[in-house]
Design a protein that fits this description.
This protein is mostly helical. It has three domains: 1-30, no CATH class; 32-64, no CATH class; 66-105 and 114-139, no CATH class. It has four helices and two strands; from the N terminus they run αββααα. The protein has a two-stranded antiparallel ribbon. The radius of gyration is 20 Å and the shape is extended. 0% of the residues are buried.
Length: 139
């Protein structure tokens, strides 16, 4: 993210090692507004979960954040893993969605009943390790 924001001229490095934003917004090229909305809808909850879990003063237990990762998967198995993980993740998310739908409030949102936003997300990743990207962009 840092490398991309620097490439786009949205941030600069300061002498003390910190960053300074020099643009109020950043929109990557060739991405429409709908795609940005979808991406922010996925990234925000994950980032908010990290912030919650990192807060030593939080007043509730930490949120679940887990991932399964291998940096030595046989390359010939990647298509099989991609397909299998899509099937299993879809089953999981559909079960979560069903549970949420069954427990949503059916009354109007007039403030008479406490409501909150809650959810769970799953994502697939295939590519280099974060360390490789960081090293590549720090050179």
């Amino acid at each position: 993210m840092r490398a991309e924001l620097k490439r786009a001229g949205a941030i600069i490095d300061l002498e003390d090692g910190s960053l300074q934003a020099i643009k109020r917004y950043y929109v990557p090229g060739n991405v429409d507004e709908k795609a940005i909305t979808v991406m922010s809808g996925m990234v925000f909850p994950m980032a908010a979960g990290v912030a919650h879990n990192s807060d030593p003063l939080r007043d509730s237990e930490g949120f679940i954040q887990r991932f399964a990762f291998s940096d030595s998967l046989d390359a010939s198995m990647v298509p099989q893993f991609r397909q299998w993980s899509r099937i299993e993740a879809t089953k999981f998310i559909e079960a979560m969605d069903d549970w949420l739908a069954q427990h949503e409030s059916k009354v109007p949102a007039d403030g008479s009943e406490a409501r909150t936003t809650a959810g769970i997300g799953v994502f697939y990743y295939e590519g280099p390790k974060a360390e490789a990207i960081i090293q590549e962009h720090s050179q």
